[in-house]
Specification:
Length: 346
């Protein structure tokens, strides 16, 4: 499944490339609770077709009614999408309006509407994203003129009276070491969450039994696979084999990269033994191994492969979204606390 922003931009490009009028809508500010975060985008075609979202649906309906040619006003005359410079609109200012548009209590959001974005600039943005670049898109709010610039860091959306700057990134990637059942569950969840998933397993007996569709396959030795995969800041690497010959070397390569999440399954004892091996035999230190997570996942009492995958995916998404998971929710800490409580009771 492609990055949602890229899906929106590609559909918008199709409409503009066929000379259809369209609007690019960006969430620029929110107050209180809001259905979609700042930076979310949607596109609306003059036919009434919509891709992406800025709310739970009610605001999209209003935008269609306001700007799509397919909507018919009370006088039965269609109102076409407007031309001209970007427009700033707000929803949910009053309690009545918030209720009308299905916003949570106290929720308000501000949108910027860009009418008929330039197809050439859209194509350049999409091509840059597909090359793996991180791109800042800046819109002149007086003229609608757009400029693009590659960047090295993700920045929060910025807006003032003159310009809107939003950062677009390529699809998040996940490299799984080990083609077992757990890997299939994680891959399925990751694809639904918009990750591009690659599985690496040089063992024919495992790789041949893989059933999940939409996943790329590598049969390299895992450390070579990590090098070839070239993890960046939008990549996570998970070692799932329980085999030190496969997991350890891959993890050693991964911690030298900018991957935002690097981890391995295993018990607390096995993970501690792994770190000790790396310190004793591969010249690592506690500091260099700080990025290595294990046991991975948040503690939900998981037992089955599917439940363990939910636990792992939850932690990956928390790190991706810069959410600090409380220490007592980490698997190792939670199990230790659980054992201490049992000891107290007995």
């Amino acid at each position: 499944m492609e990055n949602q922003d890229v899906i929106v931009l590609k559909r918008l490009l199709e409409w503009r490339g066929s000379q259809q009028k369209a609007v690019l809508v960006t969430v620029t500010q929110t107050w209180g609770s809001s259905p979609r975060p700042v930076g979310s985008i949607m596109a609306l075609c003059e036919t009434g077709a919509v891709v992406g979202s800025v709310s739970g649906g009610c605001i999209e309906d209003d935008l269609i009614a306001q700007y799509a040619q397919a909507s018919v006003q009370s006088n039965a005359s269609p109102r076409p999408i407007l031309d001209g410079p970007p427009e700033r609109v707000k929803y949910g200012i009053s309690a009545e309006e918030a209720h009308r548009f299905g916003l949570p209590c106290g929720g308000t959001l501000e949108l910027i509407l860009e009418f008929n974005p330039d197809a050439t600039a859209l194509k350049q943005l999409i091509e840059s994203l597909e090359k793996g670049n991180l791109v800042q898109r800046t819109t002149d709010l007086q003229t609608g003129t757009v400029s693009l610039a590659d960047t090295k860091c993700v920045s929060a959306l910025k807006i003032n009276e003159a310009i809107l700057t939003n950062t677009f990134g390529p699809q998040y990637r996940m490299l799984l070491i080990g083609a077992g059942q757990l890997g299939e569950y994680i891959a399925t969840m990751a694809i639904f969450c918009g990750f591009s998933v690659t599985i690496c397993d040089p063992r024919d007996s495992y790789a041949s039994g893989w059933r999940t569709q939409g996943v790329s396959h590598m049969t390299d030795w895992p450390d070579d696979a990590v090098k070839r995969f070239a993890p960046d800041r939008r990549t996570c690497v998970l070692a799932l084999t329980h085999d030190p010959k496969l997991d350890d070397l891959a993890l050693l390569e991964a911690i030298e990269t900018e991957a935002f999440y690097i981890g391995a399954i295993g018990s607390r004892k096995n993970n501690q033994a792994r770190k000790q091996r790396m310190i004793e035999h591969f010249e690592q230190t506690d500091a260099t191994l700080a990025k290595l997570k294990g046991p991975i996942g948040v503690f939900i009492g998981s037992k089955t492969p599917a439940e363990i995958a939910v636990s792992i995916m939850a932690e990956v998404l928390a790190v991706k979204n810069s959410v600090d998971v409380p220490e007592q929710m980490h698997v190792a800490q939670a199990k230790t606390l659980q054992e201490q409580e049992i000891i107290k009771i007995t």
